[in-house]
Specification:
By secondary structure, this protein is mainly beta. The protein has 1 helix and 9 strands; from the N terminus they run αβββββββββ.
Length: about 200
Amino acid sequence: MKKLMLICLVLLSSKGFSQSFTQNIFSRLEFGIKAGANATNFTDANFPTDPLIGFHAGATVAFKITNNFLFQEEFLFSTQGAKIKGGSLGDQDLKLYYMAVPLLFKYRTNSGFYIEAGAQAGIKIKEDVAGINTDNFAKKVDLGAAGGIGYQSKMGLGLGLRYIYGISKVADVNVSNITNDFKNNAVQASVFYVF
């Protein structure tokens, strides 16, 4: 009888512990949605380019390490690329479509202003490149470093501005008179809402 009571007490206390632990984890999570505009271009390209205007949209999840310090992950559909101005590729909007996953450390003040920094990985979904006889102009993975600033109101609505500096080379194909050293770079302006 004593053993049965002891087992019941252990099960009840472990169930209470696991529920409080789970509740504590979920109370530290922030979920949100975001969308905005991109201005993207290539750096280190040996052909003339201008910025290309695009967009990004998706979901966010953040874990509050403390009340002011967070780790945030985002899942964004994002357009990148550049306006090509002549050369071997002619005049065209070279568009690359990615599923981008930024991983950011964020410091948010009590008043709602924040700074963020981290890395971003992009998985290529599609590309729109005229005049190239291949489906693989760009590499499947694009890596970058990200940093930004913004403001989040008490009700969860916010504005953000972020710069993404490309680390990995974009091109995965040999085209005459084009070096494969160019990288994606982007400025993003976002509106978001955190639940």
